[in-house]
C-alpha cells in the first residue's frame, strides 16, 4: 500500500503497523481455514473407514441400521436376506425368548419352537393372536385372509400402519412379523378359505385359529377340523362389546349370551359336532347393533355390490379396538400352553356356575311352596338359566338391596307378591333381607315402598324394564 509523502514520521509508522497487522491476521485466518479443511477431510475419511469396518464386523448378524431398514422398505423388501433354519444366531433368539424359557422350561419351549399354527382371518382378532404366537416362539405361521388393509381397520389391527393401507392384510403382517423374528417361517395366502378349496392349506398344522367373520365359512372350517382331527380354536363375536371382564374361554357347547356363538353352536350340532371346540367369547349382551346403510346406497339400486363375497354381510358392526385384541390374546395363550404340553385345563367357565343358579332357583321354588302352603311344588315357570341370566346380566351378581354388594350367600325371591314368578319379578338378597321381604311383603302384604323405600323400588322397576327389553330382543 503506497504511503503519501505528506505524512509525518509518526503517522507513517502507525499506518505501516496497521497494514502489517492486517496482513498478519489474513495469513493466520487463511492458515486456520486450510487446517480445518484438512482435519475435516481426514475425519470424513476416518469415519468412512470406521463405518466400513463396523459394517464388515456385523455382516451376517441379522442386525440392520435404521437407514438400511428405510431403504429396504422403499425397495419393497427386495433383496432382504431370507434366513434359513438354524442360520440365525441362536444366542440372540434365546435372549429374545428368555422370559418364555424361564416360565415354560427347555423341553416345553423346544416343542413351541417346532410348532406350526395356521391363522385363518387376520383382522383384529387374528392379527393379535398371530403376533403373540410369534413373540412367544412359534416357529412357523401360515396367515390366510382375502381382505385388504383399510383406514378403518387401523383401530384394531395389531401391526398395520398407514403405509399398509391398500395392501393385503397378510402381506402387511408378514412384513411386520419378519422384522420381529426373522428366523421364523411366515407364510401367507391371500385368499378366502372355502370348503372344497382350502382344506390343503391346513395340512400339517398343530393348531388352526378360526378368526373368520362369516358364519357359513366359520362353520365349514370348524366342521372340517373337528372331523379330520385338526385342533382348532374359534373366536366368537368381539364386535359391539365393551366389557373386558366378560371375556372367557369355554367349550362351544358351554357358551351363552353370544349371538354368534348361539348360531355357530346350532349349526355345528346339525353337522354332527356337539362339542369339543374351545372358543373365546363374551357373556356381555351386545350394547349396539349393525349400523344401517346410508340411504344413498339404496338409491343406487342393488346393494349386493357392496359385499366382498356373495354370502358376506354388508352392514358394519361397531367395534372397540381393545376387545378383539383381548380375544386374540386369549387364543394365543391357550394355544401356547397347549403346544408347550402345559394345557389350560382348569379355566373358569362362567356357565359352570350352573350349580349356583340351580341352587337359587330351587330355593326360590321352595320358598314359593311354603308361602302358598302347597303340598306339591308348582311346575317351574322359570328355569335356572333364567335365574342365572337375571342374576349375572341384570344385577351383576350383586344384592338388589343397597349397598348392593356381592353376597357370601345369595337368595332369590319373588319381588311383587301380586305378580307371578317370572324373569322380571325376581330379586336377590342376603338371608336377613330375604326373611324381611318374605314376611312383610309376601305374607303380610305391605307395600314394597313402605318396606324398602322409593329409591329401591325405582331401582328394581328400572331393572325390570331392562329385563323385558332384553327378552324381547332375544326372542326376536
UniProtKB/TrEMBL annotation:
Residues 57-81 are annotated as: Disordered. Residues 98-363 form the THIF-type NAD/FAD binding fold domain. GO terms for molecular function: ATP binding; tRNA threonylcarbamoyladenosine dehydratase; ubiquitin-like modifier activating enzyme activity. It comes from the Eukaryota. InterPro entries: ThiF/MoeB/HesA, ThiF_NAD_FAD-bd, Ubiquitin-activating_enz. Keywords: ATP-binding, Ligase, Membrane, Mitochondrion, Mitochondrion outer membrane, Nucleotide-binding, Transmembrane, Transmembrane helix. Residues 66-81 have a biased composition (Basic and acidic residues). Catalyzes the ATP-dependent dehydration of threonylcarbamoyladenosine at position 37 (t(6)A37) to form cyclic t(6)A37 (ct(6)A37) in tRNAs that read codons beginning with adenine. Belongs to the HesA/MoeB/ThiF family. This is Mitochondrial protein.
